[in-house]
Amino acid sequence: MKPKILIVDDEPDICKALAFLLKREGYSTTTANSGEDAIEKLKAEGFDIVITDIKMGKVDGMAVLEKAKELHPDIAVIMMTAFASIESAVDAMKRGATDYIVKPFHNEEIKITVKKAIEQKKLITENIALKQQISQRMACKDFITNSESMLKILETLEKVIPTKSNIMILGESGTGKGLMAEMIHCNSPRRDKSFISINCSAIPEGLLESELFGYKKGAFTGAVSDKLGLIPLAHEGTLFLDEIGDMPVNLQAKLLKVLETGEVYPLGDTKPKIADVRIISATNVDIENKIREGKFREDLYWRLNVIEIKIPPLRERKDDIEVIAKHFINKFSSEHKKIIKGIDKEAMSLLIAYSWPGNVRELGNVIERAVVLADSDYITVENLPDKLKMLKMVEHTAQPSTLKTYLSDYEKNLIIRLYNAHNRNKEQTAIALGIDLATLYRKLKKYGIEE
Ligand SMILES: Nc1ncnc2c1ncn2[C@@H]1O[C@H](COP(=O)(O)OP(=O)(O)OP(=O)(O)O)[C@@H](O)[C@H]1O
């Protein structure tokens, strides 16, 4: 294909002369007689090179340079300037222009400068592609565990990781589903290709479709250029579909078709793109229930759920708390430039006693906060949030003397446990306890759990 050049000058004769010369050299040329006109043209289509005069009306060559780079980061821009204002050309080079030519210029000079710019553009494009590749090859993060249930899961995974089988990861929010997906990709033969992750519940329905499948220029208003979808972008790599349970049903049908044919049709395109992708999906909702309600296609479920991994909540794998807490202490100590050697016994016993409704994510937050607050080498109970400190009160009331104190201690402990388990949400705690909200308020105050 011929390289495309946009020539911008407010003197139509210069535009015409340059277009004539460069066409003869085999380039495809377009002209614009103002900065505004140039920016419109840059928005509408892609160019390899822009040759622009610096001094123009309201929108000058500097503005064209800035916009061209913003719209097409790999574009080469050549500035034209009169000898008297050569300083501004130097300034333009600092802002990303590829070269400049001083008016009046010779034909030969133009030809050489354009040829050089084409070469340079090729290098810039290769560089951008390389940078993308490097950033795609992510560092393998460890999935830390010491619990028997998780070790068994990892053992099963070892057999599955080298294959192409789709995997569905189930588990409460914050249990590590995203981390596990990264770990699977990172250890699989697809590790050198893209790991593309998208949260199906975080993106509006219309946008999710164009993000996943891509579109052809002109497919809808605003589609000013072709866009490659995330599915074809993940070709030969891994696509992580988080919160798959929230994917709209019409998109589920389209995704199923992709899985069956290995082809993706971008919106408005009749030519498919190939997509050999391994899909890892994750959800924290009861997907079988969604199938019963007709909100999730059963045929898609079976395609995605070839291997099912259930990550237990942290409260059901207490053996993990200490090792993960230590991992977070190291991580956040170095991030916050503090030297924390560990956590004292009493504080650790509270971490183990707590129910962690937000799972590992919540443990991470608690440890980060503690690392920031710690004044000594070790994290102490003082550095933990109230919801954990309260558990200490439960322990200290363990030896009641009379039936009355026994019952009230029992009541207090139960309230504290459920209050924590519901993330200090009073409405939910009252429902769980089977009492009304006013009674709960009274009891929280009576037992000094809350002012
Ligand atoms: N076993 C683990 N070892 C080390 N870090 C972990 C572990 N499990 C989870 N994490 C960390 O906890 C945080 C939450 O994990 P992640 O985002 O993977 O959870 P998730 O289940 O995908 O959550 P959500 O359903 O809300 O998307 C991340 O920072 C992750 O790196």
TrEMBL record:
Residues 143-372 form the Sigma-54 factor interaction domain. Residues 4-118 form the Response regulatory domain. Transmembrane segments: none annotated. InterPro entries: AAA+_ATPase, AAA_lid_NorR, CheY-like_superfamily, Homeodomain-like_sf, HTH_TyrR, P-loop_NTPase, Sig_transdc_resp-reg_receiver, Sigma_54_int. The modification 4-aspartylphosphate is found at residue 53. GO terms for cellular component: cytoplasm. GO terms for biological process: phosphorelay signal transduction system; regulation of DNA-templated transcription. It is found in: Cytoplasm. The keyword Transcription regulation applies. PROSITE patterns: RESPONSE_REGULATORY (PS50110), SIGMA54_INTERACT_1 (PS00675), SIGMA54_INTERACT_2 (PS00676), SIGMA54_INTERACT_3 (PS00688), SIGMA54_INTERACT_4 (PS50045). Keywords: Activator, Aromatic hydrocarbons catabolism, ATP-binding, Cytoplasm, DNA-binding, Nucleotide-binding, Phosphoprotein, Transcription, Transcription regulation, Two-component regulatory system. GO terms for molecular function: ATP binding; DNA binding. PANTHER family: SIGMA L-DEPENDENT TRANSCRIPTIONAL REGULATOR YPLP-RELATED, TRANSCRIPTIONAL REGULATORY PROTEIN. This is HTH-type transcriptional regulatory protein TyrR. It comes from Dissulfurispira thermophila.
